[in-house]
Design goal:
Distance between the termini: 88 Å
Oligomer: single chain
Helix content: 40-55%
Strand content: 5-15%
Shape: elongated
């Protein structure tokens, strides 16, 4: 070493630190790269992405060659610093100690922290080029890497920590995928994010969350006079009507109104003719997941079903449109004079029907009424009171002020909800 100039040793040290920084940058960039983006680019024929994915599918081999090179270079840098310290200060223990601290600081700053920050920041771009360098290095040092990994695999086996296949380790759970969709504000339009986010919730909600409650179902009672039946058929705004005798407990079937356009013009059209056009009722067990029910609708070629409990009692009705509107938004027409949307007025309040589903209220008004109990606002109020409240009574439901506006018979018809941050809400 005495023949090697000090300047050459210093230059070599700088080169070693730079090479160590390269390996550190490579390790971070390859592990932080978005595999889904790389997979997309690989499918388009991008050679850099293909090489990067090939390396990531052999993570143990890739990390082996990176760490092999990094540790060799760091060891060489530490040795070279000791030589430089001896050249400058002689065989002094204090000089060697200071040299060790100096090379440690240099490695941390210039070969570890800074390169890794760069690698993490520009991981996707760097991974496309690093594959061209790592692939030949892996081929060159493959015997050494294989030998080292042999011991590493044996140690992992003893610890029962066998690594999962690449495909399994990169698979996202539904919750992770949902978070990824919701956080991609700059990539996906708001409407698309809303639809995708709602799709992830279909497995967590049941048909009872979306059904129209029994008390709100429009039925065609053929026990009424024939004139009343014809009047209802001519004025109903529903394309499908449940037909029964007296009540839903005597359900006969479902009538498609458009099938009666021709027969209604016939003067001889009577009750028997109407019954002949009925479709058999389709029943849905309570508690069925909405996503499963969507598939059942498709398999059974149905668009409407009646939700029943364990005793066979009809709880409500669910249509295909109800499911679609859950993740697409309201698109069907409503009864004249009735709006489907809810919004806050100038006083920070909103008038809501008691039969309105809590899910709709939460979504439209940005509230957090509990969904694990009653499904409607009326049900939540009755559960709180354990009785039928009088008009004008004000309460707080989960911290949200609610004023009972109108009650009738055994239910709350309308209530006024006050925005929680509005100080003018009733006490």
């Amino acid at each position: 070493m005495d023949e090697i100039p000090l300047s050459a040793l210093s230059a070599t040290l700088i080169v070693l630190l730079a090479v160590s920084g390269f390996f550190s940058l490579t390790e971070t960039a390859m592990m932080a790269a978005n595999r889904f983006r790389l997979r997309h680019l690989a499918q388009t024929g991008h050679h850099g992405a293909i090489k990067a994915l090939s390396l990531l599918n052999r993570t143990d081999k890739m990390l082996g060659v990176i760490l092999l090179g990094n540790n060799l270079v760091n060891s060489a840098a530490a040795t070279l610093v000791s030589v430089i310290a001896i050249e400058l200060f002689g065989d002094d223990k204090w000089a060697l100690g200071i040299g060790t601290l100096a090379v440690t600081f240099a490695i941390l700053v210039f070969s570890e922290i800074t390169p890794k920050i760069i690698g993490a920041t520009y991981a996707d771009k760097l991974a496309l080029f690093l594959g061209y360098i790592l692939t030949p290095l892996l081929r060159l040092f493959y015997p050494i890497v294989w030998f080292i990994n042999l011991f590493a695999s044996g140690l992992l086996g003893l610890l029962r920590l066998s690594p999962k296949p690449g495909a399994e380790s990169t698979r996202l759970s539904p919750e992770e995928l949902r978070s990824l969709v919701l956080e991609s504000a700059h990539l996906i339009p708001q409407k698309h994010r809303t639809i995708l986010g709602s799709l992830f919730e279909l497995n967590s909600i049941t048909v009872e969350d979306l059904m129209t409650p029994r008390g709100s179902i429009e039925i065609l009672d053929i026990d009424c006079s024939w004139e009343e039946v014809l009047t209802q058929l001519g004025t109903s705004h529903h394309s499908r009507l449940p037909v029964c005798r007296g009540s839903l407990d005597q359900l006969l079937g479902v009538l498609q109104a458009r099938r009666l356009i021709g027969p209604l013009r016939d003067e001889d059209f009577d009750e028997a003719g109407l019954i002949s056009h009925l479709q058999p009722p389709y029943y849905i067990p309570a508690g069925t997941a909405v996503f499963s029910q969507l598939a059942f609708f498709q398999e059974n070629h149905q668009r409407i079903g009646f939700v029943v409990d364990e005793y066979g009692e009809i709880l409500g009705v669910l249509t295909l449109e109800d499911i679609i509107e859950e993740f697409v938004g309201d698109f069907t027409t409503s009864l004249p004079g009735l709006g489907n949307s809810l919004m806050w007025d100038g006083n920070g309040s909103s008038m809501v029907e008691g039969s309105r589903l809590l899910r709709d209220i939460n979504r439209m008004l940005g509230l957090n009424f509990p969904l694990d109990g009653p499904k409607t606002l009326n049900g939540l109020i009755l559960e709180h009171f354990q009785d039928i409240p009088e008009s004008g009574v004000s309460i707080k439901l989960t911290g949200i002020p609610v004023e009972i506006v109108h009650t009738q018979d055994r239910s709350v018809v309308t209530a006024r909800i006050f925005r929680p941050d509005i100080t003018t809400a009733p006490n």
